[in-house]
Every structure is written in structure tokens, then in C-alpha cells.
Specification:
Helices cover 23% and strands 25% of the residues. Helix 3 packs across helix 4. Strand 3 and strand 4 form a beta hairpin. It has a seven-stranded antiparallel beta sheet with strand order 2-1-5-6-7-4-3, with helices on both faces. The protein is built from four helices and seven strands. By secondary structure, the chain is of the alpha+beta class.
Amino acid sequence: MSEIESTVGQQVQGDITEYDDPNAPWNQAWDQEGGIADWNGDVIKEFRENSGEVGGAYAGGELILLTTTGAKSGKRHTTPLGPLYRDDVMYVSSFVEDKYPAWWHNIQANPQVTIELRDKTCRATGTVLEGEAYDEFASWVLTDNPLLADLQSKIDRPIPLVVLTLDSER
């Protein structure tokens, strides 16, 4: 991770300590039918116009844009995510309760991804952790990240964990 600085120990939202916190960004964007609002388009636009800086619920936090290839459609999909770090290892997870996110399924089908971080674009490989690798990493994550630990205590399936390894910059 030569060009990308680690943010070990930084919390994006220092005052959010529980998954159910109504101030958490993932608990604020609901449409009138009770579904999650489509907010990614505006976040992606703002990210690209401001070298990775965005306001609103994500102000002051680090975001990446993760572009995957659709497992079924073959189309490119870009999703804003908050990267997490274990030393120099970048990983991502999700606060979606009822299913694994589309980007997780896409990475299982095609691990070649693109990551935009600040003003850099990098090719990367996403690794969906499974088996012993998952167990070891999840043990550390659930000790280190109280928000993910809180979510894990409320759902029956394992939280998704994907390690992102940068291939090269372009």
C-alpha cells in the first residue's frame, strides 16, 4: 500500500458506537417506502469533483469508490465505501443486515476491481475471505471494530469481509 496512507485507529464517525445509532449514515437515507434511498450517485459525483472529499454524513471520513463487474450482468458498478485497515491491509465490509451486498457477490465472481481513493485510481484484487482466513480475520475485526461487532451480534450470517490488494496505479 505504498501510495495510500493507512488510517489505523481513525473512526469515521467518532460519536457512533452502535450499529442502530440513528445518526449513523446507514440509518438516515430511507425513501418513503421504507427502503434505502439511492444516494450513491450524488456521493460518487461529489467524490470525483472534490478529489475524494465529500460532505454530509461522510464529512471528514475516508471513502473509496469501488468499481466491480456485475456477477450476472457483466456491467460495471461503482459503490462508495468506507475502507478499513488492519495494519497496511485494506478491507471493506457492509452494514446491510438482511443480505450480502451486490459488490460482495460481484467480487466473488470477478475479483478484479478498480479503487478510487482521493485523486488516485488503482486496479486491485478483491478477496472474499472464507474458511480459516475468514475466521482469523473476523476475530480481529470484531475485536477492533465495535460497530461491526455490534452488527454481528444482531444478525445470523457472518459479516462480509473483503480484502483489497492494490495491483498498480494508472
